[in-house]
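Problem 12. The chain below contains 98 residues. Write out its predicted structure in token notation.
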Amino acid sequence: MTKISTPSMRKLAPVNFFSCNADQDALFTVCADAPVKEALEITQCLVSSARDAAITAAEALDGDQPHSLWATAYLLEMAIAVLEAAVSGIHTEERNHG
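Solution.
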């Protein structure tokens, strides 16, 4: 019998990011084999912090300048909603299956 992998058992694949020179060498790497559920929860915190920073910056600007910051804040708010839905779905699936 094949065992179905639950979301808490799924692991991340490594991803390099933030190039630091002209050769596009990555400065950072998301570690392989980290649990997806915990990674989503951490990402939710990171995106929430980015949204809060965008809102603070937009509120500090006068005139038409904050438009792109408000757009960034709204896009981050949508990303947070998707992350919250994913984390909530994982928690629900774990409660229902194990």
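Discussion. The helical segments are 36-60, 67-97. Students who got a different answer should revisit the alignment rule from Section 12.3.
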